[in-house]
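2-C-methyl-D-erythritol 4-phosphate cytidylyltransferase
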Amino acid sequence: RRCVALIPAAGVGARMAAGSPKQYLPIAGQPMLRLTADAFLASPLISHTYIVVSEGDGYIDGVISPSETGVTVLRCGGPTRMDSILNGLRAVREQVADTDLVLVHDAARPGLTPALIRKLIEGAGDAPGGGLLALPVVDTVKSTRGSALATVPRDGLWLAQTPQMFNYALLLRALSEAPDPLAVTDDASAVEMLGYSPLLIEGHPRNLKVTLPSDIRIAEMYMAQTEQ
Ligand code: CTP
Ligand code: MG
């Protein structure tokens, strides 16, 4: 099965509130997006990597050289993550077959490894609804919906990570037809709306999403560890 990666990297990093978009901040001396892209470039299972950035992005050329092989930068980012992914999927229409698997992965998760990519593809590559990396919830969960405070049994609750992997045609249809874009909080939710059940494949805490300034140090701690 041919697999390609699509990395949305067109966000502004409002919660990080740094001088530049967070995907370009250094993590252990390397731009975050470089580390993220390198996980796919080092994987023998990934045929090509596409990175979606904003049209006016002034940082990308210093991170991914236009002449680098195996990776293509698409300057078609949109106002939301879902728009960036949809624009990216449409931009690669001619290069990708309907049955190819697309692994969508946040630029802001630099702790991904080729081993986790392999685990996802081997675990869910043949599943009709695709699959995603996720982590079982370890904390006690409280719900304050409505008036009552309740403790939600955490058994069966998972936290979604990325990559999230679907065949190209299914993901394109799911995102284009999503009835309520606000309910699409990740790619899998759009696929679920079509009635599919993506498989959950256990990820790893090192694949955290870098969102707040304090996450940088945590990511650096994982980068210093040997790969798992
Ligand atoms: N993303 C994107 N296009 C957007 C918004 C987000 O490609 N319009 C990407 C981000 O670059 C990031 C991933 O989607 O790699 C996950 O989004 P998030 O962590 O929310 O990043 P930001 O939107 O940049 O951060 P914030 O929400 O704090 O502004
Ligand atoms: Mg965001």
